[in-house]
Amino acid sequence: MRIAEAIQEMTGPGVPVEFIAYDGSRSGTRDADVRVEVRSPLALSHIASSPNQLGLVRAYVTGALEIVGDMYTALATFPEMSPRKLSASLLMKVATKLAVAKVLWPTRPPAEESRLSGRRHSRQRDAVAISHHYDVSNQFYEWVLGPSMAYTCAVYETENTSLEDAQYAKFDLVARKLALQPGMRLLDVGCGWGGMVIHAAKYYGVRALGVTLSANQAEWAQKRIAQEGLGDLAEVRHLDYRGVFESDFDAISSIGLTEHIGEANLASYFEMLYSKLCAGGRLLNHCITRSDNLQDARTENFINRYVFPDGELLGPGRIITQMNDTGFEVRHEENLREHYALTLAAWGENLERHWTEAVREVGPHKARVWRLYMAGSRLGFERNEIQLHQVLGVKLDNQGRSGFPLRPTW
User: Fold this and answer.
1) Domain that holds residue 200
2) Cβ of 15: how many Cβ atoms within 10 Å?
3) For residue 110, is it within any domain?
């Protein structure tokens, strides 16, 4: 068996990709824009151990399999983002190759693959899951995200809008949807590096509290707040959103937190946010969703293993229904999936621009996870496999009044 032909067989016919392998074999389209290189028997071991998307991911993350060319172009070239199932005969041939190469099979997954223990979405397990992704390196995130340190979908006026301008526009859109005014109190749950907290305090004179489960994020945000001279208005705490003791907030923003909540906790999540608002208070929930309400929240794919452990994406209808049933009157909703594709493209460009420094900072395996995750997610938003929804709700007063004008003001 020639290895290059075997790998090509997994991807299906007609794919304009060149395949080469350490045994000297070559297959596919010569001089294609994308080349798959099998550099070590370890790649075969990963693929044979998990003959699905996860096996290829493990091979790539470890460097045993290399993608030469732009990662986004590579993923877009393949008809599917998961390989065809290995036939029994092909799997046997792979096993023979591994025996000859004296490579153990199955192979242990890379250390970057998350393995959590304890009750799903308990406070302790959530803290570990968040730390896995966010407590990587603030320097690494500064290279990828840019000066805004905003790790959520930006809002683009045009395709040529800069990432920084688009992130400012996102925070300002949230602020206007929440109708923020000087003297109001804002709670930002899952606040990241404090972008919304700082924006609300700096541009709207709002007293803003942000909470995050990432110690790195909280430390960075507090330093940024001090540098901006906003210490009298803004604060970020290293705290689970369920641990906030204050109430009677005029507004709550949740930008990129709902994905981490879990379907089983969705009702209690919105109930908690509802209880923290004063009458007439608004909630803006901004999160990634599935493209429909028919799919289960898959929890055993590449994103869950390597990027967002315990993350669960729900359909937009599930989010809206739960907000409504909790007591919020839903006043506005919009899908920004094309904006997230543009955001991820900008992050991907930043990563490639700082690739050498990024590898030195977080290691080659972690950097490869990010390259794969951002390119794949960009493709997912473009193909409507995932979406980004902002849903605006209000807590009515005891006479059913919303305080909304007749037409939107944002």
Assistant:
1) 123-394
2) 17
3) no
The structure tokens 């151990």 sit at 49
Q: Are residues 86 and 232 in the same domain?
A: no
Beta bridge partners of 188: 210, 253
What pLDDT is recorded for position 81?
44
Question: What does the pLDDT look like over 222-271, one tens digit per residue?
Answer: 999 999 999 999 999 999 999 999 999 999 999 999 998 989 999 999 99
Contacts of 327 (CB under 8 A, 6+ apart): 274, 395, 396
Place of tokens 């390119």: 375
Q: Are residues 97 and 165 in the same domain?
A: no
How many domains would you assign to the chain? 2
The answer as to whether 47 is a domain residue is: yes
On whether both 140 and 261 belong to a single domain, the answer is: yes
How much of the chain, in percent, has pLDDT values that exceed 90?
67
Q: What is the 3-state secondary structure (H, E, C) of 325-379?
A: HHCCEEEEEEECHHHHHHHHHHHHHHHHHCHHHHHHHHCHHHHHHHHHHHHHHHH
Q: How far is CA 262 from CA 111, 116, 126, 189, 311, in A?
A: 25, 15, 10, 15, 7
**Any domain includes 400:** no
- For 52, 76, 77, 333, the CA distances from 80, given in Å and listed in that order, are 12, 8, 9, 31
Would you say 45 and 105 are in contact if contact means Cβ atoms under 8 Å apart? yes
Residues 169, 93, single domain; the answer is no
Instruction: For the chain, give the mean pLDDT.
Output: 88
Q: Does one domain contain both 214 and 84?
A: no
Mean pLDDT is highest, among 111-120, 137-146, 176-185, for 176-185
